[in-house]
Design brief:
Elements: E1 2-3, H1 16-19, E2 20-22, E3 30-35, E4 41-46, E5 49-50, H2 58-63, E6 74-88, E7 91-102, H3 103-145
Antiparallel strand pairs: 1-7, 2-3, 3-4, 5-6, 6-7
Length: 150
């Protein structure tokens, strides 16, 4: 990607959950995701490649015809930075730096991020409920004392 303005150069690496998501229907357990028009993340193609390319013998392949046989070890490329090179005055070549990680580690990191997000969401829900209960209690006490709650 070419950039013509220094302000347009990327400074941060996208978060892991912005480009990948967990998927039960993927042999690696991970899919790439893109942002849809309504802001929701949409899973797209399977992420990862097998660490060992396997070729099944003809008799085994025939016995399992129509079934998907996947190796257990997959690797997933994850963006870890940016490679920014100035190729002229006011012109930069920007490419993502990718590192390969075992799919199991990427899945574990995604599960951890998902768990953190759920905890934050539940915490906000509990706090909102507490505020509503406190407001109701204030109104009840005010009515009991014959005062206006507002």
């Amino acid at each position: 990607m070419l950039c013509t303005k220094q302000k347009a150069l990327p400074t941060q690496v996208p978060a892991l959950h912005e480009s990948l998501c967990l998927a039960n229907d993927s042999p690696s357990g991970v899919r790439y995701s893109v942002q849809g028009s309504l802001g929701a993340r949409i899973p797209t193609c399977v992420a990862g490649l097998p660490t060992i390319q396997t070729s099944w013998p003809p008799d085994v392949a025939e016995a399992f015809r129509g079934q998907h046989l996947h190796p257990l070890d997959y690797e997933v490329s994850v963006q870890t930075g940016w490679d920014i090179q100035e190729i002229g005055e006011g012109l930069w070549d920007v490419n993502p730096l990718l590192e390969t990680f075992p799919a199991a580690e990427v899945r574990a990191a995604l599960k951890h991020l998902e768990l953190e997000r759920e905890i934050q969401l539940l915490t906000r829900i509990v706090e909102a409920d507490k505020e509503q209960v406190q407001k109701k209690d204030v109104k009840k006490v005010s009515r009991f004392n014959g005062q206006s709650a507002d």
